[in-house]
Specification:
Layout: H1 3-15, H2 21-27, E1 30-38, E2 41-50, H3 53-58, E3 70-84, E4 93-98, E5 104-108, E6 119-132, H4 135-138, E7 146-148
Length: 153
């Protein structure tokens, strides 16, 4: 094999790493905009939409990073009390529990990685938005604030 072809192949392999299992799984999810309005303004996030049982079960498990402008929106498909945990979740998260009309019901800040403690919505909700730990404080999020996405009417 010529040096040129060998150099090209090495460069190609370095430039385009093999996709990990967790990245592959998440690549099958829809990605949509979620907007959260707080006293500090409107904040947009790119959110993976966990709207199937398989996606909801996996969630953000095994992820090593989560950019501050991204997250995952879990869609229940109906209003019910939700129970979350951090099993196999490497990074700390803020969990935002959201009613069917888009009102923030509860915020669980800085959740503990790998914990199997149950984090409950405490009331019926349509969904949960998970963001990097510190997001709620950064955008001054509190119960009563609003989340915009088509699942909330």
């Amino acid at each position: 094999m010529s040096r040129f072809i060998y150099s090209f192949l090495v460069l190609f392999a370095v430039s385009f790493p093999v996709m990990t299992t967790s990245a592959w799984a998440s690549s099958k999810m829809k990605v949509e905009t979620v907007v959260i309005t707080t006293s500090s303004g409107r904040h947009s996030f790119m959110a993976e939409i966990a709207d199937t049982p398989a996606h909801r079960n996996r969630g953000l498990m095994f992820r090593k990073t989560l950019p501050m402008d991204q997250g995952m929106l879990f869609d229940n498909g109906e209003d019910k009390e939700m129970y979350m945990w951090m099993r196999n979740t490497v990074i700390s998260l803020d969990m935002i529990f959201i009613a069917k009309d888009g009102t923030v019901v509860k915020v669980a800040k800085n959740t503990e990685p790998f914990s199997e403690a149950i984090i409950s919505s405490g009331a019926p909700v349509r969904g949960v938005f998970e963001a990097a730990a510190g997001t709620a404080d950064r955008i001054k999020l509190k119960p009563g604030d609003r989340v915009e996405h088509p699942i909330f009417r």
